[in-house]
Amino acid sequence: MDLIQKSLLQQVAGLHDVPEGAYNIRVNGQLDSRNTTANIDIVTKEDKPGIDIIIKPGTKNESVHIPVLLSKSGLQDMVYNDFYIGEDCDVTIVAGCGIHNCGVDTSKHDGIHTFYIGKNAKVKYIERHYGEGDGNGENIMNPETIVHLEEGASMEMETTQIKGIDSTVRKTGGDLKDNASLEIREKIMTHGKQYAKTDFVVDLNGKGCSANVVSRSVARDQSRQEFFSTINGNNECKGHSECDAIIMDSASVSASPKLTANNIDANLIHEAAIGKIAGEQLVKLMTLGLTEAEAEEQIINGFLK
Amino acid sequence: MDLIQKSLLQQVAGLHDVPEGAYNIRVNGQLDSRNTTANIDIVTKEDKPGIDIIIKPGTKNESVHIPVLLSKSGLQDMVYNDFYIGEDCDVTIVAGCGIHNCGVDTSKHDGIHTFYIGKNAKVKYIERHYGEGDGNGENIMNPETIVHLEEGASMEMETTQIKGIDSTVRKTGGDLKDNASLEIREKIMTHGKQYAKTDFVVDLNGKGCSANVVSRSVARDQSRQEFFSTINGNNECKGHSECDAIIMDSASVSASPKLTANNIDANLIHEAAIGKIAGEQLVKLMTLGLTEAEAEEQIINGFLK
């Protein structure tokens, strides 16, 4: 990896170098390096681009990193990654894509991640999307995540897109069996003329299952954001969706959560709020000696933390 | 009017007999009676079924009643009513439709009400929908309300559908100029195999304008309800939407509010909750001596009050 790629790696995976444990690093559409462990196998797919990540039942406190880095302008990459997580696992998976585009062509990465999470397994899934470059070429990412949760399984998903992605459509789908739980926390910031669309669909099929979708976003400049979330309560279940957005400059934000209760014991709630940074908050920080821009920055960082 | 029609009139307009002030009573697709006043004129449309209600600028503390009654089975009625409300008015308008259907045919009433509300005028608009009969013929009502609010104008709309409507699609649209305000309170109860769809679209175009949409509904038996609301904040404005639903038996309820902020000074919030009657509430009332059915009834009445 060159310096640019190492810097991207740090942005998307928080890593200075190759990680501990299992990993698969994809650079410019090719396998760069891979490590497997006694409990975690990674196998290249034969019918299409992508990998299978197979984690043995009962695997605890292990992690898998699968970052994707694009440093050539104009590269179009598409991968299918499937995760088979055995019963009673407790693992952390870190995915993400970093694009460095110093050219005039569009760089694009589409990834479809499908999770099959076994009974009583716990998964923490962290996903970061980051772009950089001189702004002449477009950076596009369309991540799709599908999560199948067996009885008692749980997943905590943290998905972040902070900078440099010109256009993104982010789809996340989940279906839950008895006592399964899904927690999704999304953070998005858009600037310039960027466009971001988020679409969550969660089917609460099992008895006692629950989902919590929390999205926080900041839209600056002329950027546009659309947020959709659909929670279907088909059994005794709990669903909660929350979308808070800060709007700045000439940006626009739209939030469309949808709740459907098909069972008398479904308990569904959503909340959303869109507004600008409160004037009092700014004034307070400015009386402490910050400039207006610094005060805004501090409030936004706190909001997205 | 016969006894059935008088009873319908009471259900939809709270009237025992013809009202005070201006009124237009439509029975079985025909004009039954009409009264105008010095300030309020009612004119039959010549190009299509319906009436124009014209209220002089500055008219205060006057009311107009325009109930529609259908007591013949199988009647299909469609009216266009336009309301021209002058500047600085302060008036109450009571509309509504009652269907008594003792037959096997479908009775249907569609009404499109358009309001042109002048500067600084205040309108209170009350609308009730009610059906009854032996259950062999279907009762269908599709009310559509469009509200244009000039600078500083305000409308408070109360719309209620408590019983006996088998199928309804209720559309309400509003556009607001500077400092205008729109408050909508909706109450719906469905039972049996009824279907109710509600669709609000409000454009907050003026500086300092505001909208508040509050929907409370109860879905019993196998009934289905869908709630849509769209609030577009296109200026410095405030928008709030709230949808609370109680689900019972095998009913299903879906809530899809949508907020769009196209201006940095738009302040938009929505909330929704769908769930069944809390067990503790029922138990509390039952320890006070009520049966379960009585306790449910009391909770529902309180919720829809």
Automatic annotation (TrEMBL), chains A, B:
<dbReference type="InterPro" id="IPR037284">
    <property type="entry name" value="SUF_FeS_clus_asmbl_SufBD_sf"/>
</dbReference>
<protein>
    <submittedName>
        <fullName>SufD family Fe-S cluster assembly protein</fullName>
    </submittedName>
</protein>
<dbReference type="Pfam" id="PF01458">
    <property type="entry name" value="SUFBD_core"/>
</dbReference>
<feature type="domain" description="SUF system FeS cluster assembly SufBD core">
    <location>
        <begin position="86"/>
        <end position="303"/>
    </location>
</feature>
<dbReference type="GO" id="GO:0016226">
    <property type="term" value="P:iron-sulfur cluster assembly"/>
</dbReference>
<dbReference type="InterPro" id="IPR055346">
    <property type="entry name" value="Fe-S_cluster_assembly_SufBD"/>
</dbReference>
<dbReference type="InterPro" id="IPR000825">
    <property type="entry name" value="SUF_FeS_clus_asmbl_SufBD_core"/>
</dbReference>
